[in-house]
Protein 1
Amino acid sequence: MSEPLIFSFEPMHEILPRVRAALNGQGEAQLSVPNPDLDLQRFPGERTPQGIWRPLQAWLDLADRLECHLMTPVVRGERLELHLRRLPGASLHRRSKDQERYGADSEFQRLDKLEDPILLDDLLEALARVRLQPGARILDVGVNSGRELQLLDLAYPGHDFQVVGIDVSESALQLARTRFAHYSFRTLDVNNLPHAALGRFDLVLSLGTLQSSGIEQDRVFRTLLRDHLSPGGALILSLPNCRLEAGRLSYGARLLNFRRPDLSLLLKDLALYRRHLQKHGFRVYVTGKYEIVLTAVPQVGPTGDQPTLESAASGS
Ligand SMILES: C[S@@+](CC[C@H](N)C(=O)[O-])C[C@H]1O[C@@H](n2cnc3c(N)ncnc32)[C@H](O)[C@@H]1O
């Protein structure tokens, strides 16, 4: 085991390179730092008798930036012992590109996104915002094994909805059918939308899907709005802003083949959705952290009327 690095009054610009060097050399680093629980009324960087105050979040962020796992800290009186470890990190994103990439046997099924408290809360808030009536029609695009559909019961306990889930992965849809036998699931490539038999929906939900490689994102998005949303209907989309590896959740969207986060593509796509939706009379909310949630609800005019989607139908 390596000697602990003891930090009290050292600024982060000294700590960062020293911890990075230790990790590069040994694949792990032990740190002894001031215990932030001793004084909860401080701001990051404030000096206390024990050293510079930082919240535990700062050490989690340091571990994230240095691509390692922060083991559960140990409290030793006025000090906190931290252990950072590099893990081999099996990524969920390094898989084949076939239609079963997210299938029943894929690594993806090990993940339950609703364990992310921020995403869970954002999605429940988004669902409350869209004010679904009992019997509302809901289209879930890229529904996969249907895990996200449990949100409907959580947001609207006791309500019945008509839910249609579409995806290219037949094996994931089989799992969804076992979870939600009362909903309907179809194997469908979203690039082939519009699909007249689907009809229109009061809510179009698409989580972590539209940016997938192979999806003609812009065209599919406009088609969903124009051909599959009912007048007065709402939209909830989410875009990943993290990288998932076994044992580690790392903040920030990546460009293809980039290790470091770069949010430019995410911001471009969000801006495009938001501009288009606002232009067509929607009120748009953007929330989230590891996954960004965009909620679009029709603006209610001064008379209480909701705008129709005729303008969206123009496709402009
Ligand atoms: C990252 S997963 C997201 C799944 C789920 N919505 C979630 O948030 O956990 C993307 C989903 O989109 C599906 N998908 C990818 N390309 C598709 C396409 N062209 N048509 C329909 N579904 C597609 C995948 O099979 C997968 O289930």
Protein 2
Amino acid sequence: MFNNIMTRSIYLGIILSAFVSNINCTAQEAKYIFYLIGDGMGMAHAMAAEAYNRTVAHNDSHLRMMQFPVASQCTTHSASSPVTDSAAAGTALATATKTRNGMLGMNPDTIAVTSIATQLQQSGYGIGIVTTEDADDATPGAFYAHVPNRSMTYEICCQGAECGFDFIAGRNLRGLKRNGKPTDLPDVFARNGVEVVRGLGALKESKSRKVVLLDSIPFPDVWYYTIDSVPGLTLAAMTGACMDHLKKNGHDKWFMMIEGGNIDHAGHANDGGTIIKEVLNFDDVVTMTYNFYLQHPDETLIIVTADHETGGMGLGNNSLGYNLQLQHYDRQKVSKERFTVYCREIINSGRNYSWQQMVQYLTDNLGFWKYVPVNDNDTAELERIYDKAITHNEGTDTHTLYKTFDQFTETVYHILDKATGINWTSHAHTGGLVPVYAIGVGAEKFTGFNDNIDIPTKIMEAAAK
Ligand SMILES: [Zn+2]
């Protein structure tokens, strides 16, 4: 009798523990993973957007990502330097491997390393890669490509065609051209059953399971910034399209990498107003994923981080001391990149464009004099540099990773920085910390201090087995 009771108790215990472990197992597995990477989004970039949101937009809520229960930090150094480039940083965030700057999806010995996207794909996850950058650039490429140098865009695209991911989206593919001539990439994608579509309209017509979505304008010469209101694929539109596509393909679990690439571009340009608008834009996409989380709270993990800091951005400068005047960015209607294109057009056209016309442009598009204080010394300096760099084309250009800025543009935005209180140490990346925000299944793994290679490792721990 006693033995019988013992046996039944043991059986009941086994059944109960199996049941409980099954509940725990289900509750602790992230079936829907959103990995959001703000390219170049350091602590100051996020904080500038947060401060603007609070002091200028008068929004009492923190940015969505800052409301997540886990808010921590991440180091970004590569195997070759305390200051990483995007290829080594992307490789770290995608594969949990430190590599040398410039290398993509390979360790320092040029051995290919597998990304978590590929691993999750092999576990039955649908995979989506979305960026406002070119889809063969470093961060997206780190999730599907293995090349010793990130400039090998044709090879990156070929590996993208072969990777079998459901959805890859970006502004364009650099690999479509080599030395100015079209490559055979359209055939390579077609051979691998991947349809390359341009624009959301074309995507709607597509019946393919594997899609590369690009913008409808193949090679625009001006970047798409929120502040410039240039029509084009937005990060939100691509993210929504990706989620629809993964659902259409019948996936009951998926992994999405979503990169806000414009933040880095504006960081290289040292363009604070554009950065703030891009971080707010990126945060809107975080909200999109958060709304999905609210529908699937026991199955969803959202991680928000950055690959590195860009620009050495600082909140506060010697002009304003303990003040910030971010409301002046409210008057900025043109990105620094677009403004230098405008200036270059004036220089190249040789047309007579007077200083008074430029004064009107700066008043209308940057709020100078009318809203943004520009003292007499700065006005005199602006007119002097205008005459030198624009009227006589004798200025000294500033070269950055993505753009060459004429001297007048540099002077204009330097005066805007003085007025707002934003400061910079570099036109390149820096070794500064980046934020990590997390919510959902497994989010607690990201508390405390992280190195960038910890992030994908912890995502894999949280994923469904
Ligand atoms: Zn980057």
